[in-house]
Amino acid sequence: MRCFTVLGPSQTGKSTVVEKLSSLEGPPRKSSSPYGLNLTEFTFANETWCALDAPGPNEALAHVQHALLASDACILCISPAPEEAVLAAPYLRVIEASGTPCILFVNRIDEPRGRLRDVIAALQDYANHALLLRQIPIREGDRIVGSCDLISERAWRYREGQTSALIAIPESTAEREQEARTELLEHLSEFDDWLLEELIEDREPASDALYAISSRVLKENRVIPVLIGAASHGNGMMRLMKALRHEAPPVAALRQRLARAGAVDEGKLTAVSFHAYHRQNIGKTVLVRALGEGLRQGASLGGSSLGPVQDPANGRSNAAVAPAPGDVFAAVKSDHLPVPSLLTSDATVAPPEWTEPPTPMLERILIPGSERDENKLSETLAKLSETDRGLIVLQEEGTGAQLVRAQGPVHLRDLCRTLADVFHIDVTDRTPSPIYRETIAKSSDVHYRHRKQTGGAGQFADVKLNIHPNARGQGFTFNETVKGGVVPRNYIPAVEAGAREAMEKGPLGFQVIDVGVTLSDGQHHAVDSSEHAFRTASKMGVRQALSEGSTVLMQPIFRSEIHIPSVYSGNLVQIVSALKGQVLGFDRDEASKGWDIFRALVPGSALDDLARALRSATQGIGYFSKAFDHFEELYGKEADAVIRAHETARVEH
């Protein structure tokens, strides 16, 4: 079986391309997962093929990456509009990072919204590989009615629902065809000395030789050839499928590529797991592509026995058939297989770094509809995070509520639907509260005496404390300067412990930070003093001092790294400034052509707005990662609003 992924932005007709390709020589067999990855098996030219139709939204990029991990080649579908070329930038970046040979297919060519050469030029801004036109359109006025192959120099006229008709190259197209063919041959000659010599000697190379060179440079992932068509009308599908058949490398090349990327012995690399999902009454289903021999139900894979093997298209058992190298199969009751991973018979190996999904930008608290589902929700989210690496599951500080980090609103909606449909857990969501702190602006001294007599031994402790602000980021400190044993040495740790307890909640209701406490004097009683008494005296004394110390609210500031295509960079300073953030600088992304990396400091309360603004300004392409940097003071109406909201939430709970 040969396997390829069809990927690209939404609304570029990916599913239609798969449907038409898979139906060229008979009916296909199709299955889909809750994550939007569709799998289609079909036969073409007496070979079995598997097409992975990857979901289009940028929020599903993790599943796109995993599909590429199991693919011999891929087809990147794009729009014929030059201004929409940027939408393909995330996919070009992933394709090039993965090393997957790629054919770029300009779909819906019958809806021209610009010149093809402008589309390719715009895309080239985001691709390190040369994008080589292999076909050019034939126009009649404003309509595109066919295509011309630049290697064979043959022209076809599109026919609705039928194979294209072979025609002579129209005179109106001849000059453009020669220009584009010359450019193609010059690029190909960079990878073939024979062709370079032929061109220098001004000899016309044979078409068969050119096809062989084209096939080799694609298998070696040297260039990205560009084909055109209109899948909805069946135009260009046969040419695209033939290009895949002749030019996509075999599964042995994938095995070699993965072994090299994962630092695994190629001879031991048996399979790759690339997708997983949960089904009612069945559990976890793992999609696996065989890379070597010897796989069957009960065989050792990933360090344990492989569970029942099923046909991924219909779910029927394949226990009697051993998957051959290249075959895709579904494994159930094989929960030991992580996804994605490289698999040997006795171990699982982490996938290459390029499979890491973008950092999730949307944080939400999930609230179960009933108390009965609270424990179930925690266990279920842990399961789902195993099959969806774009999802991160945490607990909210302070409440312990289930906090999820999703790629965006579509990803969150799909998660909630899976919880309801598969696990019967209905949830609502809310925005988590930013983590605020408080500190003091001035020093104060306090003398606190704790005395309690309840019959029998009493409680007595007397402390004199100085409470003062520390430098930002210094945290809590404790010192003592007592003399003469007025506070016995064995009670001083209890004084520190009491001071630390007082820091857990200040007058504003938040944890206190960057405060120092110094014990300067005190008294004790030979009978009634104890560690508990001194701990209590210290805690109550520090609380009293904090209430007298001009408390200041502190907001968290995060250092954000924002990744966006360069065409959108001009908008970013304004976006960050509007959120009261600070741009620290930006650089070209050396790993991704056409992308910039911005570094900025952003208040924690503005991160949700940053994600929303970034999605809007970059058509869903831009994303950011974050790391806590420091706390800084927050004053005025904003601080008052935070304090009131916190108090209201405390009363309600």
TrEMBL record:
<feature type="domain" description="Elongation factor EFG">
    <location>
        <begin position="552"/>
        <end position="642"/>
    </location>
</feature>
<protein>
    <recommendedName>
        <fullName>Elongation factor G</fullName>
    </recommendedName>
</protein>
<dbReference type="GO" id="GO:0003746">
    <property type="term" value="F:translation elongation factor activity"/>
</dbReference>
<dbReference type="Pfam" id="PF00679">
    <property type="entry name" value="EFG_C"/>
</dbReference>
<comment type="function">
    <text>Catalyzes the GTP-dependent ribosomal translocation step during translation elongation. During this step, the ribosome changes from the pre-translocational (PRE) to the post-translocational (POST) state as the newly formed A-site-bound peptidyl-tRNA and P-site-bound deacylated tRNA move to the P and E sites, respectively. Catalyzes the coordinated movement of the two tRNA molecules, the mRNA and conformational changes in the ribosome.</text>
</comment>
<dbReference type="Pfam" id="PF03764">
    <property type="entry name" value="EFG_IV"/>
</dbReference>
<dbReference type="GO" id="GO:0003924">
    <property type="term" value="F:GTPase activity"/>
</dbReference>
<dbReference type="InterPro" id="IPR047872">
    <property type="entry name" value="EFG_IV"/>
</dbReference>
<dbReference type="InterPro" id="IPR014721">
    <property type="entry name" value="Ribsml_uS5_D2-typ_fold_subgr"/>
</dbReference>
<dbReference type="InterPro" id="IPR041095">
    <property type="entry name" value="EFG_II"/>
</dbReference>
<dbReference type="InterPro" id="IPR005517">
    <property type="entry name" value="Transl_elong_EFG/EF2_IV"/>
</dbReference>
<keyword id="KW-0648">Protein biosynthesis</keyword>
<dbReference type="GO" id="GO:0097216">
    <property type="term" value="F:guanosine tetraphosphate binding"/>
</dbReference>
<dbReference type="InterPro" id="IPR000795">
    <property type="entry name" value="T_Tr_GTP-bd_dom"/>
</dbReference>
<dbReference type="GO" id="GO:0005525">
    <property type="term" value="F:GTP binding"/>
</dbReference>
<feature type="domain" description="Translation elongation factor EFG/EF2">
    <location>
        <begin position="433"/>
        <end position="550"/>
    </location>
</feature>
<keyword id="KW-0547">Nucleotide-binding</keyword>
<dbReference type="InterPro" id="IPR035647">
    <property type="entry name" value="EFG_III/V"/>
</dbReference>
<dbReference type="Pfam" id="PF00009">
    <property type="entry name" value="GTP_EFTU"/>
</dbReference>
<dbReference type="GO" id="GO:0032790">
    <property type="term" value="P:ribosome disassembly"/>
</dbReference>
<dbReference type="InterPro" id="IPR000640">
    <property type="entry name" value="EFG_V-like"/>
</dbReference>
<dbReference type="InterPro" id="IPR020568">
    <property type="entry name" value="Ribosomal_Su5_D2-typ_SF"/>
</dbReference>
<dbReference type="InterPro" id="IPR035649">
    <property type="entry name" value="EFG_V"/>
</dbReference>
<keyword id="KW-0342">GTP-binding</keyword>
<dbReference type="InterPro" id="IPR027417">
    <property type="entry name" value="P-loop_NTPase"/>
</dbReference>
<dbReference type="Pfam" id="PF14492">
    <property type="entry name" value="EFG_III"/>
</dbReference>
<keyword id="KW-0251">Elongation factor</keyword>
